[in-house]
Structure formats: structure tokens, C-alpha cells
Amino acid sequence: MRSYIIAGNWKMNKTVAESIALAKEIVAKTKGISKTEVVIAPTYLAAAKVADIIKGSNVKLAVQDIHWKDQGAYTGKVSVDMVKEIGAEYVIIGHSEQRQYFHETDETVNLKAKKVLSAGLKPIICVGETLDERKGGKLESVLTAQVDGAYKDISKEDALKTVIAYEPVWAIGTGVVATDEQAQEAQKYVRSLVAKLYGESVAEALRIQYGGSMKPDNAAGLLSQKDIDGGLIGGAALKSDSFFSIIEAAEKS
Ligand code: PEP
Question: Mutate which of 125, 126, 232, 245 to test ligand 1's pocket (most atoms within 8 Å of Cβ)?
């Protein structure tokens, strides 16, 4: 049985003070949560303070990216050891905004995933098609290239520690959510790709989140789909009420 994982991606939102306040609210609200894994990904700047607040709670820390190098002259970047030191357990990799604005490629996603795994942390690997790709009948070929690229030279044992987030680019931050059927169909396909790479048992165990305008009013429908094991949430994760409603939907699902 796969457990649900609900992760909030705060992106470039919230000052340190605002992050502390939001983390405190989420810790308080999630006290009774027992089945659903809850993860939050604040900015790097707030991550260490948030780590202190969530210590001993039901909430885990993620960061939104890392560099695959250990250290050195990479202005603006942060290494995996740095985020491990402050207590991060997850690292979001290959988010469509990284792919779109910051030259993320399937190759750099793979380098980052291997680095995260080698440090004993868990990558949340984002994949997903643009609207043009979907309309052009390229959904499957895009997902295949992204999954194959991300998992190149990653062992079965390490693959089991990863989470995939299927995020149709056209649904991210747009308010246009994939229908339950569209999301399920794509996620079933992603799971079949994992099965091709690692076999059925890994594919059955690996968790695949849906991301793209997931909100309290659509979460239950999406989370009831067979191949949807949680959500990567942007906008609705910025308020504790809406984030917690989605967590509750997972907990009841
Ligand atoms: C995301 O950033 O991964 C995301 C899914 O954002 P939103 O929920 O705002 O669409």
C-alpha cells in the first residue's frame, strides 16, 4: 500500500517571518495526521528556521532545488550537504519553472537526482507536458524522455526512494486543473514507464503525486484515482487552511 504524500512548494513566496508563521500553523493543524506524509518546501533563506519549527512534528522539510556539485564557484547555488545539514529530507527537482526559466534539462535533473540520493535524501522528480505538446499528441513521448532521462544510471534500490510529481505545465499556477481522468491516464502511463525501467514491484511501490492547481475543492477527486498518491501544491500551499484541507482529503481518501 502506498501512503499519500502532500508537499507544499512555496516557490519564491513568503519572507522568513511569514514562513515561520505559516510553518507554525501547519505544525499545529497537522498534529492528528497519521497516514499522510506532509512536506513543505520554503525558500532556502527560510529553510533553517522552518526546520527548527517542524522538529518533532508531523511535517518534513524539502528544498526547491540543489546544485549537483559538492561545492565551489557556483554563485547563487546551494549544495546537497548544506540542505542535509539543516534537516531537509526531500529535494524538488526538475520543476517546470526550473525547466522553463533556468535551463533545467533531463540531464541536469538526472545529475541532481543522483546527488540527492547519494546524500541519503529523497528527490521529488517533476515531469509533465506543455499544452502544445499535449495538443500535438506528444504526451507519451515527452513523459518517456523525462522519466528515462531522470532515472539514467539510478539503481532499483535508489529508485524506490524517489517520488515522481506529474505536473502538466498547463495546469501549474493557472487555475486550470487536469480532470481526474486526464491526471489518472498520464500517471498510469508514468507508472508503466517506471515498470519498464525497474519492474512491476518498484512501479507499484513508487509514489506519484499530481501537481497543477490542486485545491481543496478538487483534491478529493484527484486523490481517489488509482495512480495518484498525493499532491505537489503551489498556490494552495501558501495558506494553512487550504493546505490542510488537501491534507485532510488525503487522510480520508
Ligand atoms: C507547483 O508549483 O508545483 C504547482 C503545482 O503549483 P500550483 O498548485 O499553484 O498550480
Answer: 232
Q: Please report, as a single letter, which amino acid is at residue 33.
A: I
**Closest residue by CA, ligand 1 atom 8:** 234
Beta partners for 211? 232
Cell 497537522 sits on residue: 30
Half-sphere exposure for 218 (CA within 13 Å, toward CB): 20
Active site residues: 95, 167
Which H/E stretch holds residue 122? strand 122-127
**Element containing residue 18 per DSSP (H, E):** helix 16-29
Please list the helix, strand and coil fractions of the chain in percent, rounded to the nearest 5, in that order.
50, 15, 35
Q: List domains and CATH numbers for the chain.
A: 4-252 (3.20.20.70)
Mutating to test ligand 1, I would choose from 172, 210, 239 the residue with most ligand atoms within 8 A of its C-beta, which is: 172
Q: d(Cα 147, Cα 113) in Å, to the nearest integer? A: 12
Q: How far is the CA of 33 from the centre of ligand 1 (A)?
A: 23
Q: 162-189, pLDDT tens digit by residue?
A: 999 999 999 988 888 889 999 999 999 9
pTM above the 0.90 mark? Answer: yes
Question: Quick check: 128 and 212 in contact, CB under 8 A?
Answer: yes
